[in-house]
Design a protein that fits this description.
By secondary structure, this protein is of the alpha+beta class. It has 2 domains: 2-180; 183-301, Cupredoxins -  blue copper proteins (Immunoglobulin-like). 47% of the residues lie in helices and 18% in strands. The chain is built from 9 helices and 11 strands. The chain has helices at 5-24, 31-56, 61-80, 85-108, 114-138, 142-145, 150-153, 155-170, 289-292; strands at residues 197-198, 207-208, 214-220, 223-225, 228-232, 237-243, 249-253, 259-262, 267-272, 278-283, 295-301. Strands 5-11-10-7-8 form a 5-stranded mixed beta sheet, with no helix packed on it. It has a 4-stranded mixed beta sheet with strand order 4-3-6-9, with no helix packed on it. Strand 1 and strand 2 (207-208) form a beta hairpin.
Length: 305
């Protein structure tokens, strides 16, 4: 969470800058320009805070979504308040939409790209706020602008500030979300009487072949263990899904009838067989879980080796 503080600071500073401008020149800014300002700030704050809150609450998607929508909506409404009720409504709705999309975006992004997407969103936010300032300054006559402080009258001041903030955030590292940190380090655990190691094309070194048809799959937030399973065509098997996480999870082999669901701290079993050889993908079908990394490969060979 500490790694996201510079990004949060950038969002707050630029919002205050624009809001101050709107208050000072509220009688000289048209309703349309005020609505655009409220919409832009609400949408971008919602998007940005949606990504940050999802990092702070990685295993609480519902709470992160609601908080992001509230924060984006409130900031958008505050931005439009010096102008008109229409601007307030415009900012409120844009902020709610942005907060929802920001959380959805980070949920679908692999953990390896987590830091990159937050930095990209920061760059987009800074660029849009700068363009917004230029638009608002175009609404004001030069003689009125020159009567105010350098920070409000000259766009170069915000340009320099954004550049410095970008420099700080660019060198910020260590951004991570708890449950997504270890997707590349999934362990392998299969209940068996005998194992024969084989090579697998997905980068795992040794994947055991099950000979007693009893498979143990561990589910946490948000990963399966093992990440690869090998079966034989028409071979009867029983999969036991052990849910060690705080959320409900299931294990669904796409293209088959194999589906098992387990509540937090519980386990459940399903038996069956797969009649056709090939490579299948097993996922957790609950919203957002597949995108967060709950994927496993099931290799079904024609005959045992």
């Amino acid at each position: 969470m500490l790694g996201t503080i510079p990004f949060l600071g950038l969002y707050i500073i630029l919002f205050i800058w624009i809001f101050r401008f709107l208050i000072v020149f509220r009688r000289r800014i048209s309703c349309m320009a005020g609505m655009m300002a409220a919409m832009a700030i609400g949408m971008m704050i919602g998007l940005g805070m949606g990504t940050l809150i999802s990092v702070w609450l990685p295993d609480q998607i519902f709470q992160a979504t609601i908080l992001s929508m509230l924060m984006g909506g409130v900031i958008g409404a505050i931005t439009g308040s010096p102008i008109s009720i229409m601007a307030v409504l415009d900012g409120l709705l844009a902020g709610i939409m942005g907060g929802m999309m920001g959380t959805m975006l980070l949920t679908m992004i692999p953990s390896t790209n987590l830091e990159s997407i937050i930095k990209i969103m920061t760059v987009i936010y800074g660029a849009i706020v700068f363009l917004l300032l230029l638009m608002l300054q175009g609404e004001i006559k030069e003689e009125h602008l020159n009567k105010r402080s350098f920070l409000l009258s000259k766009p170069i001041s915000m340009f320099v500030a954004i550049g410095l903030l970008f420099l700080i955030t660019h060198h910020t590292t260590g951004i991570s979300a708890g449950p997504w940190e270890d997707h590349s380090k999934h362990s392998q655990s299969i209940s068996k009487d005998d194992q024969t190691p084989v090579k697998t094309p997905i980068g795992q070194t040794d994947i055991p072949i099950k000979t007693n048809l009893e498979l143990l799959v561990n589910a946490t937030e948000f990963s399966f263990s093992p990440v690869a399973i090998q079966l034989v065509v028409n071979e009867p098997f029983t999969i036991t899904l052990v849910n060690g996480g705080k959320n409900e999870h299931d294990f669904d082999i796409i293209g088959t009838d194999i589906h098992v669901h387990a509540k937090p701290g519980k386990s459940n079993k399903v038996s069956g067989n797969i009649p056709k050889a090939g490579t299948y993908i097993a996922v957790c079908t609950l919203p957002g879980h597949k995108e967060a990394g709950m994927i496993s490969l099931v290799e079904v060979s024609p005959t045992s080796t």
